[in-house]
């Protein structure tokens, strides 16, 4: 169960926003009244509290807090700006102006980097099936103010949709995106991906089905790209024969050119 509340220092706007969000999520708004979040969660027997701040939404989960921050994307974009490469963009063979469907948006680091890659004439649509992750990221992309113009422009060019990728893919015409991208929760998590651990509690953990890959191949004009642990058997199971990423890289990208 989820409850929605605010930070302690409130004003009418913040309360109204929290009430709207609670109504949108079809859940309870709880006035904060200087109470601690754990007390509120206990009282309502909730495992998640969504805390509304003026410029941020914070998810208070049993394993810690989660909020949108473009830090990983920031590091990768900086590297690209200094002439470096990005293994994901290389695997996708991203070109300016492309339209990319990111089927597994999560906290949007990959989507922001893809968006930087396609530039202002391109477009990213990001699908996230979990309504809380989707909401926090959608708001975060809108309200987070980075000092870097490139990063802000990349964040602005992502459309977030709270939908399951299979149902979305099935509704798209053939060749309607240049690239379709999947980064599902890894079957075997990498030990050093601890920063994903609160995400694990909310994220949809189902494996990608062969049907979803078939749909992606129909919807993609150029290629389907799939990210996994480099030793994963998922590449073979789903028919990815071309594998990109360094020999010793912990993460690989499977590519199907269509
Ligand atoms: C590993 S995370 C993606 C991380 C993301 N690439 C990033 O850079 O932050 C996988 C995300 O895909 C979402 N997901 C899993 N199955 C999905 C589905 N069928 N439709 C839409 N989203 C899905 C999960 O809820 C999770 O948030």
From TrEMBL:
Gene3D superfamilies associated with the record: Vaccinia Virus protein VP39
Keywords for the protein's UniProt record, in alphabetical order: Methyltransferase, Transferase
InterPro entries: 16SrRNA_methylTrfase_J (IPR007536), SAM-dependent_MTases_sf (IPR029063)
Molecular function terms from GO: rRNA (guanine-N2-)-methyltransferase activity
EC number(s) given by UniProt: 2.1.1.-
CDD domains linked: AdoMet_MTases
Enzyme class of the recorded protein, top EC level: transferase
Domain of life: Bacteria
Name this protein carries in UniProt: Class I SAM-dependent methyltransferase
């Amino acid at each position: 169960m989820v409850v929605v509340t605010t930070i302690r220092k409130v004003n009418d706007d913040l309360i109204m926003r929290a009430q709207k969000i609670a109504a949108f999520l079809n859940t309870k708004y709880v006035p904060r009244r200087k109470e601690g979040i754990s007390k509120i969660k206990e009282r309502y027997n909730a495992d998640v509290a969504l805390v509304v701040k003026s410029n941020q939404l914070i998810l208070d989960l049993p394993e810690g807090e989660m909020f949108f921050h473009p830090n990983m994307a920031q590091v990768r974009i900086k590297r690209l700006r200094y002439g470096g490469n990005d293994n994901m963009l290389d695997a996708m063979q991203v070109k300016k102006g492309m339209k990319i469907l990111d089927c597994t948006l999560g906290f949007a680091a990959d989507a922001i980097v893809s968006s930087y890659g396609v530039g202002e004439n391109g477009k990213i649509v990001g699908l996230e099936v979990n309504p809380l992750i989707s909401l926090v990221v959608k708001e975060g992309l809108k309200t987070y103010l980075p000092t870097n113009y490139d990063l802000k422009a990349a964040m602005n060019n992502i459309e977030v949709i709270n939908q399951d990728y299979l149902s979305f893919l099935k509704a798209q015409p053939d060749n309607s995106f240049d690239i379709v991208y999947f980064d599902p929760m890894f079957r075997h998590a990498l030990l050093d991906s601890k920063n994903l651990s609160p995400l694990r509690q909310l994220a949809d953990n189902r494996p990608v089905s062969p049907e979803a890959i078939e749909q992606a191949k129909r919807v993609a004009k150029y290629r389907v790209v799939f990210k996994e642990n480099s030793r994963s058997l998922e590449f073979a199971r789903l028919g990815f024969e071309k594998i990109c990423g360094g020999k010793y890289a912990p993460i690989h990208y499977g590519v199907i050119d269509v």
